[in-house]
Design a protein that fits this description.
homotrimer; alpha/beta; five-stranded parallel β-sheet; about 45% helix; globular
């Protein structure tokens, strides 16, 4: 009898161990691209997943980072290189362009007018929706550092954290779905 | 004794719960790109996975959608915007181009002739193979709507479904491997 | 009593089965892109994951393959097509370019000088670091064959294997995180 109980204990421990290693009901997205089309795909997946009862974390890195800049916020004291990057990259989601068929902006304009006509939210709208739905956002500190972005110029967003790859990997390792977009 | 049996019941329930949450032996691929090279990579993975006994679902969205149009099928009654998109995007896999080194089509031609020489199937061939192997295909309805594609102009394919992000997420959450291509 | 023991046996078997199907503490990355920025992202994730105690496998395919060529190694006996591909693609990580804002090489130069200033390792440095940390590398044989690369022109790297999609899928199916970069 005692032995049986011991075995039971051991079985429970194994189940607990398994449980801890089980991927949660979570989705982790790396938003590496700053293109309008890819960012839209990321937010369609993110908001769709929340609607299905999943938890979502988005990790904005490299070209994805400038999508989260706030056009209304001005920062001073940047060096020349940072100013150049700042000027060349989109200031916020509204300036994002299609990865294909941009055609000097005409393709992007066409897509945006189509989205409005077909009742698909704009990228800015999707960011607001994501915030309301509780989607958490990580912003890659290394990318911000390289591109010379300051925290003061990023959008207000409730569940926003600045972090590195370790933060992402921890979330991703406990997620059911991970995508590099 | 009775208590032991109760514990056993509870252990079994936990194992069942774990089992239900376990990722299946399935691969979910999002084919966002319409580039020849990326679409090829998607189908190499898809058909390879089936060969290894895995189940495969491919979700075609955005630029990936026009790859599944059938050149032989004509549809009428499109508005101007839809006609423009229809004309600018590839009509089927045969018109897909390399993402790099396309060089006005010369690079793509070179790659295709190399593939033939090295006995690598064409993209069209891979789609047929995938159908034979039972790879399931989802086509994103939002993308079709935005680009003005109609169901009547898509290729015949046995395991073809039209759907949205919820359909993909359901498959992906029960998959071992998920990739955004 | 005997029945209880039998049930126990069955429970244990189920746990073992579950254990075998559990994703390991492993990360599998497909490096499809040959762009400096995306390759950097791949290595930041790879080395970060090892630092967190995870095992990492990188699968280099298509445009990612030429990043692993060694500029110092010369091979002869290539046909015209292979020579052309060889000349047009980067010879090693040092020649990789940004996917955006390359601006005839100026953007890439700016990014590299920024990386040095901010103490971010170069791509070549990251490859060495990955080797030291025990990151395993798979090189796609089909890509090498298509682009006419020979094994003799690839970099020395301790944990390097040549293989196909089956090798990747086996690793990926046992990984917690899989990304297509």
């Amino acid at each position: 009898m005692e032995e049986l109980e011991k075995q039971m204990e051991s079985l429970k421990a194994q189940i607990d161990a398994t449980g801890n290693r089980m991927p949660d009901n979570k989705v982790s997205l790396i938003v590496f691209s700053g293109d309008l089309d890819k960012a839209l795909a990321a937010f369609v997946i993110a908001t769709g997943a929340v609607a299905m009862g999943m938890e979502v974390v988005m990790f904005f890195t490299f070209w994805g980072t400038p999508l989260l800049r706030d056009k209304k916020k001005k920062v001073s004291g940047k060096d020349t290189m940072s100013k150049m990057f700042g000027a060349m990259l989109p200031t916020g989601a509204k300036e994002a362009k299609l990865s294909k068929m941009n055609m000097g902006g005409m393709g992007t304009m066409m897509m945006k007018s189509l989205m409005e006509k077909k009742n698909v939210s704009s990228l800015e709208g999707f960011i607001e929706l994501a915030e309301e739905l509780g989607v958490r956002i990580f912003i890659c500190e290394m990318s911000m550092d390289l591109m010379g972005f300051k925290r003061e110029e990023m959008i207000d967003y409730e569940h926003k954290t600045y972090g590195g790859v370790a933060g992402f990997l921890e979330e991703a390792a406990n997620s059911k779905i991970q995508l590099f977009i």
